[in-house]
Amino acid sequence: KSVLSRLGKTPDQCLMVGNSTKEDGAAASLGIRTIIVTDSMEGGTEIPGNVEAMTFDEACKLLGELPDISK
User: Fold this and answer.
1) Rounded Cα gap, residues 20 and 17, in angstroms
2) pLDDT tens digits for 37-64?
C-alpha cells in the first residue's frame, strides 16, 4: 500500500505480474489486477480466484495491448 502512495496511483491504475502465488498474489488483496505467469510458478499451483493465470507469452501479448496510463 505504501508503494501505491509513493507512486500516487490507485490500485486500478496498477498491474502486478509475477510468478509467485504467495508474494505477487498479495497485490490482488489491495485491488490490483494480478497476473501469475505459470511457466515458472512458485508458491504452489493453486491460483486464487482474484488472480489471473497465463503463460509468459500470453502476458507479454497482454502487456503490449494495454493502454498507456502513465500520464
Assistant:
1) 9
2) 999 888 777 777 789 999 999 999 998 8
